[in-house]
Amino acid sequence: MYTGCEGEGSMSSNARTNAPGKARRSDVREAIVAAAESLILDRGYAAVSMDELAAAAGVARRTLYNQFASKEEIFREMLAGLARQLEHALPPGVETQGDVEEVLRLIARALVSLHQRPEYLGFFRVAVTDSRQFPWIAEAFAAVIEPMLDRLSRYLAHLTKLGVLDCRNPMLAARQFTGIINEFFLWPLLMGHPETIPTDDVIDESIRMFLGYYTRTRASRRSA
After folding, report:
1. Which structural domain, as residue segments, surrounds residue 22?
2. Are residues 156 and 108 in the same domain?
3. pTM of the shown model
């Protein structure tokens, strides 16, 4: 019995001893990723060196390489964080929050909210400016964005199956809808000229135009 108690005490002591070390390692990784987001999203991927990242994170170069083997690995960690943000931006079950017009309005507002985040715009800028030299950046960034488009496409396909809409190519329709929103909010912000048309007006008219083309009654008239 004594030996067993001693072992339990020893394990608890080891757990307490190791916990701070694990916490510190996690803090170091988070500090490195935070520094990378600050520098890379502001200056671009190619313009930032590993030495600069180490200095900005307040860690030694050896510590940096103990956590990440390369700058690419750090950037992919940044993209993983962005993917988690996108999951929260469009919560599960939003497709059931009303009729198609209301759901599209919720999706449009989620997109507008994303476009207003400086870090989200920063990722777009890096994808545009650095992907020519580093093609994998565009591919990795697209992989993060595509799940949201896939989700909208599945929703439109479902409504088409129910007879509510007539989207012969749901992915095309999904890209058309998000493209309209991007035209008024994403691209102007990237160019440094925010849209002056009221947000509600843009969203309402975009939905009206989209549904005006894809609702079943209008689609039937087109076929006739």
Report:
1. 1-69
2. yes
3. 0.77
